[in-house]
Specification:
single chain; about 325 residues; alpha+beta; Adenine-n6-DNA-methyltransferase TaqI, Chain A, domain 2; four-stranded antiparallel sheet; three-stranded antiparallel sheet; 8 helices; 15 strands; elongated
């Protein structure tokens, strides 16, 4: 931040908390975090920074578990007040009442959480290593092989849903996936929609709206239909695996390429001809399959990791309840 004075910024020491009082623009959650590192950070003076005044009675880590619960988010939203902006002010924050078990019981349940969190982080590090392996493999191909235009391996499709038999209509997202259309679609009138068969691609030519090329490969076991403004194509699978091509089109480098090669006045489009001119290395089909297999393993583990993180958050109210019940017995 060149030319910005950092003097008004607030200091966040290790084990201190910071939260944003404004809750009206953050959905159903309150933005709150604890500095879990050994570093000292700074934050905006609009935020509120606080610490546990008596750590011998309340562990900061235990307080974090309390804040992780959806119950606390609901409390914060319900007790936020204001006209233009609803805020959960400091005094109201301090009025929040908690049941406090003995410090030894707090520590026990904090240790349980830490053990689960550590396992999840170990899994995530392995996930990152797998992603690096996949990326390194692709980069090595890019530098060791002559690239070819994918136009030699793809075929433009324009099959329409003329009999209106296919009712699964999907749109495209910036995350390179099919999704439920954002606008209402009359499923009784899909004759003009384009068919995308399994392992065929669809992409949105317009790139100036999202700044990326929105595309997806049909990994479902049935045909779907998409808007007639989308481009649809199939791949000559004897020489090029659809999943391998999808890896290249998913790279940020390709998004930059597509934006640079998009043309138009009112709207910038990445044309079908431009797609055919995209160059990638096309190794032996067995090599392609090896790369695809690594990437599939990465995606499976990525999904598992997201579930682990969700479970980590879901377990917080269970741990709090367990600690309170143990203190009562």
């Amino acid at each position: 931040m060149v030319g910005v004075s950092l003097k008004p910024y607030l200091i966040i020491n290790p084990n201190e908390f910071v939260y944003v009082a404004d809750t009206s623009r953050r959905g159903d959650k309150i933005a709150i975090a604890r500095n879990t590192s050994n570093e000292v950070y700074i934050c905006s003076s609009a935020y509120t920074v606080f610490k546990v005044s008596e750590p011998s009675k309340l562990l900061p880590e235990y307080l974090s578990l309390l804040f992780e619960r959806a119950e606390f988010d609901r409390y914060a939203r319900y007790n936020s007040w204001g006209s233009a902006r609803e805020t959960f002010d400091w005094q109201t924050f301090c009025d929040y009442e908690i049941e406090l078990p003995p410090i030894s019981i707090q520590q026990k349940y904090v240790d349980i959480y830490k053990a689960i969190h550590k396992n999840q982080q170990c899994y995530e590090r392995g996930l990152n290593d797998l992603k690096l392996t996949c990326d390194a493999y692709i980069e090595n191909l890019r530098h060791s092989m002559v690239s070819e235009e994918i136009g030699n391996y793809i075929v433009r499709k324009n099959d329409k849903n003329t009999d209106n038999k296919i009712k699964t209509v999907l749109g495209l997202s910036t995350s390179k996936e099919f999704r439920v259309p954002q606008s209402r679609v009359n499923k009784k009138d899909l004759e003009g929609y384009k068919i995308v068969n399994p392992f065929e691609f669809a992409f949105v030519p317009t790139t100036d709206t999202w700044k990326v090329l929105a595309f997806a490969i049909n990994t479902y076991n049935e045909p779907i239909v998409v808007s007639p403004i989308y481009e649809v194509f199939s791949v000559c699978t004897e020489k090029l695996l659809p999943e391998y091509l999808a890896l290249w089109l998913s790279r940020e480098e390709f998004d930059r390429y597509a934006r640079y090669h998009s043309w138009g006045s009112a709207r910038e489009n990445f044309s079908w001809e431009a797609m055919g001119e995209v160059q990638i290395p096309v190794p032996d089909i067995d090599v392609q399959q090896s790369i695809v297999d690594i990437y599939k393993a990465y995606n499976i583990r990525k999904e598992i990791n997201e579930k682990l993180k969700a479970q980590l958050k879901d377990i917080c109210p269970i741990l709090i309840k367990g600690s309170i019940e143990e203190a009562k017995n």
